[in-house]
Amino acid sequence: MPIKATAPVAGRPMLRDPPWVRWSLIGLALGFLGLFVVLPLVTVFAQALHSGFGPYFDALAEPDALSAIRLTLLVAAIAVPVNLVFGVSAAWAISKFEFRGKSLLITLIDLPFSVSPVIAGMVYVLLFGLHGWFGPWLRAHDLQVVFALPGLVLATMFVTFPFVARELIPLMQEQGVEEEEAAVSLGARGWQIFWRVTLPNIRWGLLYGILLCNARAMGEFGAVSVVSGHIRGLTNTMPLHVEILYNEYNFVGAFAVASLLALLALVTLVAKSVVEWRWGDSLAGTRH
Description:
Blueprint: H1 19-48, H2 53-61, H3 63-96, H4 102-109, H5 111-114, H6 117-128, H7 135-140, H8 149-160, H9 162-175, H10 178-185, H11 190-219, H12 222-228, H13 238-247, H14 251-278, H15 280-287
Helix pairs in contact: 1-14, 2-14, 3-8, 3-9, 3-11, 6-8, 6-12, 8-11, 8-12, 9-11, 10-11, 11-14, 11-15, 13-14
């Protein structure tokens, strides 16, 4: 299908690149995606099914693998809703109000993008570990954060909390506050404004942020690796379980679990694409 030139901007002539330039760029993009995205995915599934479906399903039904799958889904089920609430609240505050420390809040939201997940995990160990700042208090009250579910959730929340907020902040800033102010003038209250005015306007951006947050939560490795303790059957998520199996030369099991993790990511991507296709016009209007 030939690529059409974009419509001319006011006062400027249309720019028409030679066909060889357009097709070279398209070929370069497709080649890059095929080499660094499609080929690794195909390799994962090919290696997982190399010995047949029997060993593949046996590897997934192994108790430690089932525990890793359940733990991954549980961590994501806790971290994503919490980040959803935080992201919406932060985006609302930043886009609708002026207050001291606003720029600092925006900087802190971007912090996980600039800090290594391994460093984040080490910080939680220093805070909540046995010899950390809160370690003696936690031990005295028989509470365990590091090498347990709470530590995994905290580490996952840290690396994923920018996604919802960062998706909503520019969207809500672009929409302004006129509709909310009109609702206030008509006597609407806070929750009524949110559910009937704000949420319908941001629902597609919110969905996109949730999908990104969920995908990162299920695939996080660095931060949870530090705080998990690598206890098989207890604190190993799917990415950590893949590493252990691979280091033990159990390639069928490692690639089987890796393929399931990739499949979950693909399902998330397909769900996003289906929603965009089904509600394309509404999504385009909201995103732009």
